[in-house]
């Protein structure tokens, strides 16, 4: 940090409560990045306790042209909160109060730093339900979920973070505070701005409070885990389930490479010969779910699976989901770096996708492990790389490039729930038309004319 | 129309296919308004057949500063498509093709002029489901539904129009064409623009094609219709249903005035003494729905209703919904003009709302009939006015003003599914903060700097 910077920050510190602007090198280092590999140490870290502090900070930053990179819990996968142009990292971690859970309004008022799982546990105690369930929900925050419009397995039935954001308090780049949306489950007052800020990756404003929609907690759940000799059969089963009028709360798939790694780790004999794996979860009233899982069992049996495991109630379901989580650990066990790409294809292209990734594997010499939210067409394609190998990054990017081009060619998208961030930035021009990029610039200029919010990313 | 106008329009006509710009007075008259009472005859009506024509038209209009008011099927309730500043009414009625229904992708590609019910019938034949069900769905169009983010009874469980819009083709004011969103059920590529245009009431761009999400068609449905001596009991029942873990696909209420009018019309003896009425609908797998409706029946019985009627399967359900529709006709039978206000209160305020509207009735001397989507807190408050009475409009506005102030005071909103349009424009400043209005202006200027799109409305 040069001396002009240090003057600037000491003036900022005076206008905020003590210890909300931090400059200690050891602390700055902790705010350099997220779960992706890129990082940059910021010049300062802001740890505000109030909307007022955030407003003062942004007004100051706009006036002095200082980059501000907002940050949730730092559990993103795409380097979205890496402060690539230095300046201030604005962490919302101290604004972490659940301010209200209203049982009759079916609404929660929360600050952005609330950990997702904590909110879910709190509302479930009252018989309410906040469905979005990103894999990192024990660590990630509602603010980060809003910035990336986070999803998860249950989003097939229940929708993504956006679908639960009724209202937001947002501080704009110039420090003005706007309260958007409402506390009601329906609202048609003006433009739908609260949902424009959802998924805007910290580039349009800083969320300081959110009004979230809650729904009645389904009292019961049940699962099936199903093994198949071939992916084709798994996809056919998925199609049959949906065309029998079921919209399961989750419909997850895993491919042969993932299962091979899982066999290695778990020594499960049952996974022998198993090249595709589905998890189907239903929820609702207990009697209905018990009956429906029997109907599903029949539907699935007719597709010649290798095995079916049934889980009734939360404990047995959790046991089945544990296998799904083991898939991730198994991939880690390979010692390779897992580059997780959250592409989405139109659901009818799932079989093509798995055929394509198998080909990619052969052609580029990397293992490619696919699993994820098959019901949505949202598959995590994990390119497994030994980063110590010569040219690994270059070769890996070539494989990703081929993957993304094919996915876009199928009318798919390069990200379903992680966002663009830095990881997907090289493919942003491929994924969007010039007219769409111009539209992003227009809106960015309208809301952040000085360009201080999360600069150096895709807009 | 003056001669400079006529020169302008004849130059526009030359650049478009013949008969896409119409100037005949008899035709112009038909495009002066919607279901609300305000109207203004436009200078010209555009009836384009293609995105190309829409693009040419908007480019021309921006260059020549001509107001353009986009229009769906003209079934709005708030005067949203009244061309208050004259110019061109742009009707999308000729762009009415269902271009594709894809059974595996669970996607429909449609032009904006498609009638909502037609799309629903077409997808249901294939075992697919497009849930949003505005009351006018036999007459209104998808484009109009998108412009107003239309809702309906089923939105309690399934969400509103926005939740089914995956992608849009939009012509901006300058004539540029942008393809927003995607064909996938999940997408995190950049800002969520397709959903910003949803509900923007024709002020930010013109939708020329939509990619809609479809879900599996639930194979069965069942209903309960329940009468109560007091609204308090109906609301308590509603609360009990939700807290038993049910999220019904519809939960509709009607109040004492509505029921009195219905008694008058139907001579139903059963409605004697009945001051509140609920309809609850469940859908899903047949065996589950049959079982669940029995559980609901038990829950409801414990609340001391005057009567319960059960409807199993589509025909019996339709018979129950027919009663709901009779409520509307009954109000029409009174000979009074029904001013339908689609306010929303936080769900916990429902009882307060009904108490308040009863008071309003006494104070202002108008009948006030309330019915609607109780599950969402979205109640249609119908102020019944004899417009021939002296000062009727003034007195009516005073009552509405009181209603809207109270609703806002409860953290409710003045419109849940109809939009602001002209009808709610006087209350726009009351319903929004200066910062929110400034945000609307900023975005409007960014997308339509010449201000040609639907001018004279709330932005």
TrEMBL record, chains A, B:
Domain FAD-binding PCMH-type: start-end pairs: 38-217
Matching PROSITE patterns: FAD_PCMH
GO molecular function: FAD binding; oxidoreductase activity
Keyword tags: FAD, Flavoprotein, Oxidoreductase
Cofactor dependence: FAD
Pfam families: FAD-oxidase_C, FAD_binding_4
Organism domain of life: Bacteria
Record's keyword annotation contains Oxidoreductase: yes
Regions crossing the membrane: none
Protein name: FAD linked oxidase domain protein
């Amino acid at each position: 940090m040069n001396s002009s910077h240090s003057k600037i920050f000491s003036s900022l510190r005076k206008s905020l409560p003590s210890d909300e602007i931090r400059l200690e090198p050891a602390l700055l280092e902790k705010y350099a990045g997220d779960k992706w590999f890129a990082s940059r140490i910021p010049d300062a870290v802001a740890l505000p306790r109030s909307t007022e502090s955030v407003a003062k900070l942004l007004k100051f930053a706009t006036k002095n042209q200082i980059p501000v990179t907002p940050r949730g819990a730092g559990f993103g996968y795409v380097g979205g909160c890496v402060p690539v142009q230095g300046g201030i990292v604005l962490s919302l971690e101290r604004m972490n109060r659940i301010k209200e859970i209203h049982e009759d309004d079916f609404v929660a008022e929360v600050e952005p730093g609330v950990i997702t799982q904590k909110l879910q546990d709190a509302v479930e105690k009252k018989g309410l339900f906040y469905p979005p369930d990103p894999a990192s929900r024990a660590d990630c925050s509602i603010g980060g979920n809003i910035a990336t419009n986070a999803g998860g397995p249950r989003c097939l039935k229940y929708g993504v973070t956006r679908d639960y954001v009724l209202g937001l308090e947002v501080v704009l780049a110039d420090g003005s505070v706007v309260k958007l949306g409402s506390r009601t489950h329906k609202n048609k007052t003006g433009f739908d701005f609260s949902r424009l800020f959802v998924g805007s990756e910290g580039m349009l404003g800083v969320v300081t409070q959110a009004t979230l929609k809650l729904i009645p907690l389904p009292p019961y759940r049940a699962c099936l885990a199903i093994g198949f000799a071939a992916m084709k059969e798994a996809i056919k089963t998925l199609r049959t389930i949906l065309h029998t009028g079921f919209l399961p709360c989750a419909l997850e798939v895993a491919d042969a490479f993932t299962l091979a790694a899982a066999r290695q780790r778990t020594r499960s004999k049952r996974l022998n010969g198993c090249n595709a794996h589905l998890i189907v979860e239903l929820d609702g009233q207990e009697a209905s779910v018990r009956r429906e899982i029997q109907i599903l069992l029949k539907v699935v049996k007719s597709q010649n699976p290798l095995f079916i495991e049934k889980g009734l109630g939360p404990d047995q379901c959790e046991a089945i989901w544990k296998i799904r989580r083991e898939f991730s650990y198994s991939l880690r066990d390979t010692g390779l770096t897992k580059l997780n790409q959250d592409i989405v294809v139109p659901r009818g292209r799932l079989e093509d996708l798995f055929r394509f990734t198998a080909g990619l594997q052969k052609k580029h010499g990397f293992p490619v492990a696919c699993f994820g939210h098959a019901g949505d067409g949202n598959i995590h394609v994990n390119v497994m790389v030994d980063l110590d190998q010569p040219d690994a990054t270059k070769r890996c990017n070539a494989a990703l490039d081929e993957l993304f081009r094919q996915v876009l060619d199928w009318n798919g998208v390069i990200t379903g729930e992680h966002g663009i961030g830095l990881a997907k930035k090289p493919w942003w021009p491929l994924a969007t038309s010039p007219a769409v990029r111009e539209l992003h610039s227009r809106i960015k200029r309208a809301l952040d004319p000085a360009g201080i919010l999360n600069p150096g990313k895709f807009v």
